[in-house]
Amino acid sequence: MERRKRTSMYDPYREDIVAALEAGKTIRQIYDEIICPALNGGCEYSGLVYYVNKNGLRYVTENDGYEPVHICAKCERCGQIQRERFDPMRICKEAEREVLAVVKTSPRWCPLRSGGGEVNA
Question: Is the dihedral of CA 9, 15, 18, 21 positive or negative?
Fold first, then answer.
């Protein structure tokens, strides 16, 4: 006896989700505009995120579903200081703070992030 393949409550909306990702929408926007109204609020945001990740929908399009993030390495307001005994240190000239080496995009306090940047965070 074969096992029946389970379907997700999001399967009927798969094409809509992919089309919205291709249009540049975030997963939060897809949830608020498509999924939640279609299911009359009978779903959770985390369930949609799980469905998108599990089915690899993030990689179907160029848009990964996250908010665009500023990248300090390409910023004209950031620079490097060559220290005498250590590796170079990246700094943000506008915020006058060090950008740690573990930061791949931009720190949460960056003034150019979509959240406005909290310099004292």
Answer: negative
